[in-house]
Task: structure prediction
Amino acid sequence: MMRPAVMGILNVTPDSFSDGGIHFDHTKALHAALQMIDDGATIIDVGGESTRPGAAVVSAEEEIERVIPVIDDIRRRSDVTISIDTRKAKVARAAIAVGANMINDVSGLTFDPEMRKIPDVPLIVMHMRGEPATMQQFTDYDDVVADVARELRERIEGLEHERVMIDPGIGFAKTAEQNLELLARCHELTSIAPLVIGASRKSFIGKLTGHAVGASRMPGSLAAVAAAKRGGAAIVRVHDVKETVDFLKVLCAIDGDAR
Result:
């Protein structure tokens, strides 16, 4: 089993649930991206709209204003894969024009139908029900893993299979218990498409550990990375890049995996 690629999270927003908007400043965002690359991230996921529970929609124009200068500057300094974390085709196209080469759509292509028409670049399709403002009202599943798998298959139907990845949406329209079940059984999703897991610093970790929002949830996040890796995830999406890279080096050595 190969070591998962590490995707570093760069929230260029004033209201991120986890980092408190510390990367909203352009210079700080660029510095953080370059540090994550130095620490071993092979993908930088740049987002300009918070999708925390209860978050309001940001206009495409404002999102573009936040992310495009940062993506442009990262690309000028590095050939790292840059993912644009957006639900909007207008934002995705603008990001690709300045060097982004992956799309991460947390709405699973349900927010903007035009997203399906953007060709060629790899596309992460995440599972979510409703909107960030309403998603926790939609946590009724017969079997969370089977239901998420079915809904993801429906959303990627008709797309070129070789460029699609799936994300079960840990924390998005899921209870804490459902998040744990998805992590425990994420291997059941790998037959659909390459699997992306983003559990970093999520609220279920805080519920289990008692730690407040932010970096204090890092140890719990590493436990989720272990579950993702052993479940066959191709990518883990994290805030704590250096710690995750080191953790995976040791875990993969223990498991006897290829480097």
